[in-house]
Amino acid sequence: MQASENNRSFTQLIEFEIEPHQQPALVLALSAQTEHLARQHRGFLSASIQASDDGRRVLNYLQWQTREAGEAAFRSFESGEEDFWQLIRAHQAKAVTFGSFQVLHSLERSHDNALHCSLVGWR
């Protein structure tokens, strides 16, 4: 199934498998890199960095207005000053898994405690 062209929101998920002692440093490095991407690239919507309780995984979630914006930012990340592959080596990631997704449904709570839902049709 494919999302309709009306929805072009795009999410990148990058999961790192690491040794627990590497988790804090990787989280800090990803935080800095993610803030840099957000400032430097148009189309940024949101990001989060999540750490597993056992210390063995870190998940970097980046959401962009369009696939093109996300891919352009990632190309920059791959070849930037602190390039992505150096980041992987520096934090001794055992495995890195990439995923790209179109957003089809989202649910958010606003400041006034109301729920807002967005659902995109299929074509």
Explain this structure.
The termini are close together. 15% of the residues are buried. Helices cover 31% and strands 34% of the residues. It has helices at 23-40, 67-79, 84-90; strands spanning 10-17, 44-51, 57-64, 95-102, 105-109, 115-119. The radius of gyration is 16 Å and the shape is globular. It is built from three helices and six strands; from the N terminus they run E-H-E-E-H-H-E-E-E. The chain has one domain: Alpha-Beta Plaits (2-Layer Sandwich), CATH 3.30.70. The strands form two sheets. It has a four-stranded antiparallel β-sheet with strand order 2-3-1-4. A two-stranded antiparallel sheet has the order 5-6. The longest helix has 18 residues, at 23-40.
Number of strands: 6
Taking the sheet with the most strands, its summary is: 4 strands, antiparallel
Instruction: Tell me the domain tally.
Output: 1
What is the number of helical segments per DSSP (H or I, 4+ residues)? 3
Protein name: Antibiotic biosynthesis monooxygenase
InterPro entries: ABM_dom, Dimeric_a/b-barrel
Organism: Pseudomonas jessenii
Pfam families: ABM
What would you say about this model in short?
With 123 residues, this protein is of the alpha+beta class. 31% of the residues lie in helices and 34% in strands. Strand 5 and strand 6 form a beta hairpin.
Keywords for this structure?
oxidoreductase; ABM_dom; monooxygenase; disordered N terminus; alpha+beta; single chain; Alpha-Beta Plaits
